[in-house]
Amino acid sequence: MDIIAVDANNKEEVLNFLKNISLVHDINEEVVMNGEYVLDGEIVGLLSFEEFNHFGLIRYFIFRKEVKEKIIYELFNKIVQKASKKGIKSLLSLVVKKDAVAVFKGLGFYEIDKEDVYIEETVLHQTKFKDAFVLKYDIQK
What we know:
This protein is of the alpha+beta class. It has helices spanning 11-19, 29-32, 69-85, 98-106, and strands at residues 2-5, 36-39, 43-52, 55-63, 90-95, 110-111, 118-119, 122-123, 133-138. It has a single domain (2-138), classed as 3-Layer(aba) Sandwich (Aminopeptidase). The chain has a seven-stranded mixed sheet, sandwiched between helices. A two-stranded antiparallel sheet has the order 7-8.
């Protein structure tokens, strides 16, 4: 398995991967370009983030099949490096499925108070993500 940065040469292949995922409806190409993907003959996973000033919001953390923890850590570390180069100081994730919280905590994320999180000037608990867990990862310099 290889981990590859999304670029202009492979963007269409990554977009097609996302289009074939039933849960993904709106694809943000700018966010896709902040991604890294796992290739095992075909794309099997993608991790990317959206930029908000000095924060990055994990937007696509999608796998078509199970991969080893080592691959997840390597993929995440590449995203952290990419975010750091862009001046991102923290990564945030809104986790809807409680089972996924353990995955993020295993990567070094910790839970933060929802009252401190806004989506387009609306406090999180007044959005469709009101039941989500809000997790943060601080990027070390």
